[in-house]
Design goal:
about 110 residues; alpha+beta; Alpha-Beta Plaits; two-stranded antiparallel sheet; 6 strands; about 30% strand
């Protein structure tokens, strides 16, 4: 089973539409469009898992760079998620420099 990255999706694209597109190249195991956890709006990319590696490579060749719902989508083999600062995969503490407080630079008084 090969996992594919699908980018530059229209924000109103559904998982069913992506599945239908990829099924033209082979059997699809799953489709996941990544959404913002607060607004539930699509982030414009997702992942497709295909049951057969050869069909997944065929999908990359056939679909990458083609027009889908008015956008040239990008399809590539998904890469493993990289560790980020904080020791986890994206949910760690980031140093923002914000200290809070009022406009005079102080904290709560």
């Amino acid at each position: 089973m090969l996992k594919l990255y699908v980018g530059n999706l229209s924000f109103n694209t559904t998982e069913d539409e992506v599945k239908e597109l990829f099924e033209k190249s082979g059997a699809v195991q799953s489709v996941s469009i990544i959404k913002d956890k607060y607004s539930d709006r699509s982030k414009g990319f997702g992942f497709v898992e295909m049951t057969n590696d050869e069909e997944a490579k065929k999908a990359i060749e056939e679909i990458n760079g083609t027009d889908f719902k008015g956008r040239n989508i990008r399809v590539a083999e998904a890469k493993p998620m990289e560790k980020r600062e904080g020791g986890d995969y994206g949910g760690g503490h980031r140093k923002s420099g914000f200290k809070g407080g009022n406009s005079r630079g102080g904290g709560y008084r």
